[in-house]
Specification:
Elements: H1 5-20, H2 26-33, H3 37-49, E1 53-55, E2 61-63, H4 65-87, H5 92-102, H6 108-120
Antiparallel strand pairs: 1-2
């Protein structure tokens, strides 16, 4: 299933938040992303419908195995692309911003070659 970029961004945000705080709620996502409560609520409902996450009676959000796998994939892309851009001299802010845009459209093949290249030349590049 191909997910919209916004859905991927929400999943990535939830993953990042879960690594900082044990129990993530919608308000935590609002504070992290700066998006409005109605936007977050709509996204959460769509992601629930797509079986990417669940919300318990207390409002705590849990990624499903499928949602977590996609969130990890997007986060890895973001991290590696940001690192690559910084290594070639891009400012941290621009590197982060550009990685956020590219992580959603880059092919698996291209990303895998970037990872291989960085791994091969980790000491020489």
């Amino acid at each position: 299933m191909k997910m919209h970029e916004s859905g991927e961004m929400y999943l990535e945000s939830i993953l990042v938040l879960k690594r900082k705080i044990a129990n993530v709620r919608s308000i935590d996502i609002v504070n992290h992303t700066g998006y409005t409560k109605p936007s977050i609520s709509r996204a959460i409902n769509l992601l629930k419908k797509d079986n990417m996450l669940s919300v318990d009676d207390n409002g705590y959000i849990t990624l499903t195995p499928e949602g977590e796998a996609l969130a990890i994939k997007i986060y890895e892309r973001h991290s590696i692309l940001t690192s690559l851009f910084e290594k070639i001299g891009v400012s941290p802010e621009t590197a982060d911003s550009d990685a956020c845009k590219i992580e959603h459209v880059i092919s698996d093949e291209t990303f895998d070659r970037i990872k291989e290249h960085l791994h091969k030349c980790s000491n020489d590049c």
